[in-house]
């Protein structure tokens, strides 16, 4: 189950190429390194009925999302460009954004250690959108 491949694009994968991993040990992507992270702070989504909190791993281009239903620790969406993270953070409906965009990226279950991993104290939350 540990197929490793190199990706040439930051765009989401087609349905036939996407891999979902729900259990087991898994090495998915050369760019993801479990030992090194640059995690932003957890941002809670109180207006969302589906998403509890999320944060971005700047080093690994991974978006971590936890759910309100508490059925698992959440998911790590892999190779999400920073602009994809910003779009998710600013989406009026986080659940709709997950369905329409994030589920197009490869993703896997988050481990308890990843949920508990310390955030980089120098990283702040995203600022609000400025309209002019």
Please summarize what this structure is:
The protein is α+β, with helices and mostly antiparallel strands.
Describe this structure in words.
- The chain is of the alpha+beta class and 132 residues long.
- It has helices at residues 82-90, 94-100, 112-116, and strands at 20-21, 43-44, 51-57, 62-67, 75-77, 107-109.
- Strands 1-6-5-4-3-2 form a six-stranded mixed β-sheet, with helices on one face.
- It is globular.
Secondary structure topology:
Layout (H helix, E strand, L loop, with lengths): L19 E2 L21 E2 L6 E7 L4 E6 L7 E3 L4 H9 L3 H7 L6 E3 L2 H5 L16
Parallel strand pairs: 1-6
Antiparallel strand pairs: 2-3, 3-4, 4-5, 5-6
Unreliably modeled segments: 1-11, 13-32
Secondary structure: number of strands: 6
H and E string? EEEEEHHEH
Mean pLDDT: 78
Which strand order spans the largest sheet, edge to edge or round the barrel?
Answer: 1-6-5-4-3-2
Distance between the ends: 50 Å
So how many helices? Answer: 3
Shape: globular
Main sheet overview = 6 strands, mixed
The whole-angstrom Rg is 14 Å
Helical content stands at 10-25%
Q: Which class of secondary structure composition applies to the elements?
A: alpha+beta
DSSP strand (E) fraction? Answer: 15-25%
């Amino acid at each position: 189950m540990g197929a490793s491949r190199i990706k040439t694009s930051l765009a989401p994968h087609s349905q036939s190429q996407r891999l979902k991993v729900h259990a087991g040990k898994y090495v998915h992507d050369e760019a993801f390194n479990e030992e090194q992270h640059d995690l932003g702070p957890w941002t809670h989504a109180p207006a969302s009925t589906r998403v509890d909190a999320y944060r971005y791993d700047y080093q690994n281009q991974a978006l971590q999302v936890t759910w309100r239903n508490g059925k698992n620790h959440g998911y790590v969406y892999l190779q999400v460009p920073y602009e994809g993270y910003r779009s998710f953070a600013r989406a009026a409906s986080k659940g709709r954004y997950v369905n329409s965009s994030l589920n197009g990226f490869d993703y896997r279950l988050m481990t308890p250690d990843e949920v508990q991993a310390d955030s980089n104290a120098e990283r702040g939350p995203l600022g609000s959108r400025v309209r002019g």
